[in-house]
Amino acid sequence: MRKLPPLGALRVFEAAARRLSFKDAAEELNVSATAVSHQIRQLEEMLNVKLFERATRQVHLTAAGKTLFPVLREGLDRFEQAIADVHRQQAGQVARLTSTVAFVAKRLAPLAGSFREMYPDWTLRLDASNRAVDLEADADAAIRFGGGNYPGLVTEPLFADRFAPVCAPSLAQTSAADLRLATLIHFDWGPARRDDPRAPVWRQWLARAGVEDIDASAGISFTDEIHAVQAVVAGQGIGLLSLTLVAEELASGILVQPFELSLEGDRYDLVYSPRMADRPATRVLRDWVIAQFGGTVHQLGPRPASQPRA
């Protein structure tokens, strides 16, 4: 059982700490300034710490108050958001879609407006997370990147990813051998795939290209794909990146793909619980995702690749 102070006292403290004024907090909460002062004093006695330094016309947070305030503010914000989501969900108006941080940032966020165009009465909630969330409690559907094996879930393939060297136009090389003079940008797949011979990394690409005498681990390495993309866009080097995540930059000419040779990556799948399949939120998400990505399998899927000149 949690031993917490009364929620009312915590709300009063949060308002007073945010405004640094008992008077302003009282107006916001529609109570008297005396009531605010009384609630704060009770909370301080309960916690056995002083939360405010009181002056004639203003108050300041103590060290203890500064520790408590941001945590409490975030908790109340999330509490408010959760209640709002419950109300919308009860009315069948919130569709919750989860995917990796990189895919949400690079592919889903730019397309979010099209969801509203298709379903103006619905609210799309995008959850960016690299962990597999509960597809009943925390989301209505997910777009997952992997091998396609998701036991107990409905799995609808979307497209396979490809990985290839990309760079700013000014850094484009004419032959793979010229990469000896380039800074290689890496995305670190982590311990789970570091020794995987199928992992789309520079070592594998250079071997396929028949290029030797290049340190495949040298350069700049990132543990976040978005950071690797940003470094390549900034002209820091040539990255072996997901063509899915840099599709917009390639289409606009911000980045170029100097060599046709690409490596096969994992695939993106739409997945959801069979128990959620007939729910309105899951249905609208499925229709929207298929409309956005169902036709990209031929654009982003495997293609004949010629070997670059060594």
Automatic annotation (TrEMBL):
PANTHER family tied to this protein: GLYCINE CLEAVAGE SYSTEM TRANSCRIPTIONAL ACTIVATOR, HTH-TYPE TRANSCRIPTIONAL REGULATOR
Coiled coil: none
InterPro entries cross-referenced by the UniProt entry: LysR-type_TF_proteobact-type (IPR058163), LysR_HTH_N (IPR000847), LysR_subst-bd (IPR005119), WH-like_DNA-bd_sf (IPR036388), WH_DNA-bd_sf (IPR036390)
Pfam family for this entry, one: HTH_1
Aminoacyl-tRNA synthetase found in the keyword field: no
Keywords: DNA-binding, Plasmid, Transcription, Transcription regulation
GO molecular function terms listed in the Swiss-Prot or TrEMBL record: DNA-binding transcription factor activity; sequence-specific DNA binding
Keyword field contains Cell wall biogenesis/degradation: no
Protein name: Transcriptional regulator, LysR family
GO biological process, one term: DNA-templated transcription
Family named by the database record: Belongs to the LysR transcriptional regulatory family.
Domain HTH lysR-type: 5-62
Native source organism of the sequence: Rhizobium meliloti (strain 1021) (Ensifer meliloti)
